[in-house]
Amino acid sequence: MGVAVQCRERHRGEQGARETREEGGRQPLPHQMSSSSSSSTAERISDHTHTHTCTHTVACCRHKKTEPEEHARRHKEREGERPRLRRGRHLQIEMSGVVVSLCLLVVFVLLCELSRRILTKLLAPRGLCLSAVYAVELVSTLQLCICNLELRLLGEVGRLQPQFCLSLTYLASVVHGLTFHGALGNPCSTLEYTYRGRLTARSGVLRMVCQFMAASVARTMLQGLWALGLSDLHLRHTLQGFQCISPIHTDTHTSLVLPGPLVTAAAVELAGAFAMQTAFTHTHTMDQRYRVHAIAALTATLTYAGGKMTGAVFNPALALSTQFSCSGHSFLDYCLVYWLAPLLGMMCSVLLFDQMLSGRASPYRPLLANKRK
Question: Which of these, 206, 194, 185, 203, lies nearest to 361 by C-alpha position?
């Protein structure tokens, strides 16, 4: 009995092991295969989708992170280019305005020179020498005022560099000295000539009338020309109503010595007129080719020294044309600074050096004086 039971149990164990091996080696059914493959495919798709989603998310994050930086970089580049373009355009406009103004100055000088020659040839042979002298005085003062008004426009409205403005001032002074043909163009010089007896009182008064008349006409002529808008500078000045501001103001250095802007400005004009008259008086022995450049260099130097405080005019007729229409001070203030101060400076120079020369009259003569006078 015991042996039989053991045999049956052994037989059952072997049969169970055989069934187990058969189940392990049995192939799955078709529906079981499809379900298992579907599940594995779904797992692979989900893994791929998850990977793609993560990659896309990282890319989006990177794109979102770099997009503001790229936009900011491009904005900075555009903002950096705009001032350069604006400066280049502004410089181009300024240079075109400078070219137009210089061409106008050349045309004015040529027209004035032609007018002087024509008037001299027409009036001198007919016994109207004095009329020719007054006509030359009128035209020369007109040339002086027109050139200074245009140069002032370039300096104030065009905002050119001071070195360039001083170069133009020097060049204009040389041109005036070479083309005036004995004209004085300055009431202070006319009074000095009258004081020394080189001119009669009547001739001196008529010359000064011509000078102040030319100063008034010059500004009216240029305002009409500026209204044409030949350049951007002219158009801008016209839109501003030909407005100008007086250069008289208190300087930080001179205000410590001289009280008030008017006293400072008057002192500057007096000193400048004194220096100019002294130079005119003591350069008469020089060759005219060098004398013209010496006077022009002194004019540019005085303009650099006193231009910021008064405009460095040193000429009552020129001041009437360039300064009296500016806002900031009254007519009496301008008379004190631009008329009385230069007159006192001229008289101080004349009286001082007359005493030094033992009362002898100085052989002063204007630049390129007309020998026929």
Answer: 194
Give this prediction's pTM.
0.71
Q: What contacts 105, CB < 8 A, 6 or more positions away?
A: 146, 147, 150, 151, 172
Question: When comparing pLDDT for 20 and 372, which is higher?
Answer: 20
Mean pLDDT score, 319-327: 91
3.60.20.10, 1.20.1080.10, 2.30.42.10, 2.60.40.1190: which CATH number matches 96-356? 1.20.1080.10
- Decide if 104 contacts 231 (C-beta within 8 A): no
d(CA 279, CA 281): 5
- On whether the CB atoms of residues 343 and 157 are closer than 8 A, the answer is no
Structure token digits, residue 316: 């009552």
Q: Is the pLDDT assigned to residue 60 strictly greater than 80?
A: no
The residue type of 270 is: L
- Residue 240 sits at φ, ψ, to 5 deg, of -80, 5
